[in-house]
Amino acid sequence: MKFTLLGTGTSTGVPSIGCDCETCTSDDPRDKRLRVSVLVEHAGLSVLVDTSSDFRQQALRVGLRRLDAVLVTHCHADHIFGLDDIRPLNFRHGALGVYANARAWKDIRRIFQYIFEPSHYGGGLPQVLAHTVEPGASFCLAPGFEVTPVEVIHGRLPVIGYRFNDFAYLTDLSEIPPASLELLGGLDALVIDCLRLKPHPTHLWLDKTLEYLAALRPRRAYLTHIAHDIKHARDSALLPGGVEWAYDGLEISSQ
Ligand SMILES: [Zn+2]
Ligand SMILES: [Zn+2]
Ligand SMILES: [Zn+2]
Question: Model pTM?
Answer without folding.
Answer: 0.97
